[in-house]
Amino acid sequence: MTATESDATAVAPRIDAVFDLDALLTEDELAWRDRARRFAQERIAPVIEQDFEDKHFRRELVREAGELGFLGMHLSGYGCAGAGAVAYGLVCLELEAADSGWRTFVSVQGSLAMSAIHKYGSEAQKERWLPGMAAGELIGCFALTEPQGGSDPAAMTTTARREGDEWVVDGAKRWIGLASLADVAVVWAKVDDEGGDDHGVVRGFLVPTATPGFTATPIDGKLSMRASVQCDVTFDGVRLAADAMLPGARGLSGPFGCLNEARYGIVWGAMGAARSCLESALGRSISREVFGRPIGANQLIQAKLADMLVEVEKGVLLALHLGRLKERGALTPAQISVGKLNSVREALRIAHEARAILAGDGITNEFPVMRHAANLESVRTYEGTDEVHQLVIGRALTGLSAF
Questions:
Q1: CATH second-level architecture of 3-134?
Q2: What angle do CA 157, 159, 160 make, to 5 degrees?
Q3: Cα dist. 226→93, 101, 378 in Å?
Q4: Which of 229, 240, 299, 317 is most enclosed, with most CB atoms within 10 A?
Q5: What global pTM score does this model have?
Q6: CATH architecture of the domain with residue range 254-398
Q7: How confident is the model over 136-189, as pLDDT tens digits?
Q8: 348-382 pLDDT tens trace
């Protein structure tokens, strides 16, 4: 155990003593939380700094995540665990405390690709893909964002046209997580079928990635999410059987329904990164001495630590509230936007404050803080930027759309 790990282990009980979250959780939720914490601490944390440096995603851990029940855990049937929303959120928090890339993987696999198939797929599609994905034997990706589209999916240019008994998909997507590793891609495309009922309508298609014309190229040069994989994807005359379409998804409500699942996980996950940064700063404030005493004995440092803890507590309690709403079927998109906006924005502020407390050592990989801060810049951008979520909330408040 390194000195940094020892510091974090020593300060965790201090944080827990101030913030008694366990009292608000069920035994089942605590069991899921503890399982995810062990996996994160034992399998991800010891190697994540080197993986970040090497731009390496450990695919061998995918099956382990499946065996532990994390993949599509909020779904029921087809080998999925059928866990509650709060249990899923706690797993996201613990994984992101290790690295945002691993929470992102669970989100892409479970909340996006598996949720799309589970919500909108035929029974045959569910049986074909979901059991293997839940077990970690198969990987899925979710191809929505386009090079020029960004926050405007209605401007989609990827098309699907009918040719006899087949669909032919052409176009391009960007920033598609896991695409070069995936076995199946959930692809959203506008139907090009003059005179047909679906002409110009966005529909979802299941595309086995071995299909000729499908190409996924990992994006290089990333300074964030380096232990994760995001790709440019092209579709060049990709031919699919007629039954490749997801029958239950018509229009943008289809992908948005999946995006809200992923955004919910981010509300929890970002607080995991924030907690990790707080633990690093707190441990260092106790162990590092300047001018003959620990830096944590200074009022300015204690004020920073107190503010960081307050925001972690507020963020987790908000996530818990949203989780209970979700379990009752009462969670709204605007409420998810409140959570995503707050959690990621405050997690970044905590990361920056922690870096300052760590002083010069804070920019090294002896501590996870700079890695978390870099990753959180991606989390802040995907699944809706701050500005998009502000507009969602503003629309809910005023009844007026400013998009």
A1: Orthogonal Bundle (1.10)
A2: 170
A3: 19, 8, 11
A4: 229
A5: 0.94
A6: Up-down Bundle (1.20)
A7: 999 999 999 999 877 677 889 999 999 999 999 999 999 999 999 999 999 999
A8: 999 999 999 999 999 999 999 999 999 999 999 99
